[in-house]
């Protein structure tokens, strides 16, 4: 889903920053060489920095959880259970610190994920999408956004295992991402589509290696979920 939003957001930026674009974004080949090169460098830096820190935070969460809850075989069912991973570091304040982080990440992630799904589905139907569009011009996008957000709130009130839902949604997202990764790699390596901006040998090798790891992780995730061996 985030792949859809990233692409849609980039198109919005390119479209709104140049009046010549109209409803369509101008490609790099249609722009002046200096601004196009600067835009490409900025995009690369933005993605690299964002991915670096997101992976760093993810690793810290995994390491802290494995060293505390995982070490003792604790079955995490609620947010309070997960908060215990911080107790060795901050003591009784763990639940308050975890709550602040949990709420903050929710405020950040919910609009992004809801908009990502809405943009993807609206795009499949060929309808207009994006927050720069008025609701009357993009009714499908905003309707899906509202349904997704309200639906998530309703589900949270009627489930006894919110952590299980988070894990399930992560597995679904991980599996759904694999076809997008394959298509992205094929497009990025196609000289007819990308021209001089196609992936180099290093990017191609790392990209396909990451895609293979994701596919393998998805297969393992499905197996452990079905068999209950995870």
TrEMBL record:
Subcellular localization(s) per the UniProt record: Membrane
Pfam name, any one: Nramp
InterPro entries (UniProt xref): NRAMP_fam
Topology class, membrane: Multi-pass membrane protein
A GO molecular function held by the record: metal ion transmembrane transporter activity
Keywords: Membrane, Transmembrane, Transmembrane helix
GO cellular component, one term: membrane
Superkingdom of the organism of origin: Bacteria
Transmembrane segments: 47-69, 96-119, 140-159, 165-186, 206-226
Listed name of the protein: Divalent metal cation transporter
Source organism per UniProt: Arthrobacter terricola
């Amino acid at each position: 889903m985030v792949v859809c939003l990233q692409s849609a957001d980039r198109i919005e930026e390119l479209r709104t920053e140049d009046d010549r674009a109209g409803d369509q974004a101008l490609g790099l080949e249609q722009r002046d060489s200096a601004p196009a090169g600067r835009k490409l460098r900025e995009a690369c830096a933005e993605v690299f920095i964002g991915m670096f820190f997101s992976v760093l935070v993810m690793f810290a969460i995994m390491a802290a959880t494995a060293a505390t809850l995982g070490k003792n075989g604790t079955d995490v069912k609620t947010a309070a259970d997960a908060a215990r991973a911080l107790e060795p570091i901050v003591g009784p304040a763990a639940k308050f610190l975890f709550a602040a982080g949990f709420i903050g990440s929710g405020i950040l992630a919910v609009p992004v994920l809801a908009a990502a799904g809405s943009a993807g589905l609206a795009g499949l139907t060929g309808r207009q999408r994006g927050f720069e569009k008025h609701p009357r011009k993009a009714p499908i996008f905003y309707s899906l956004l509202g349904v997704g957000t309200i639906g998530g709130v309703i589900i949270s009130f009627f489930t006894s295992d919110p952590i299980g839902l988070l894990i399930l949604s992560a597995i679904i997202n991980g599996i759904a991402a694999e076809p997008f990764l394959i298509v992205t790699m094929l497009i990025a390596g196609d000289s007819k589509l990308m021209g001089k901006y196609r992936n180099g040998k290093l990017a191609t090798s790392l990209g396909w290696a990451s895609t293979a790891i994701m596919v393998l992780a998805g297969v393992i995730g499905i197996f452990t979920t079905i068999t209950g061996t995870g």
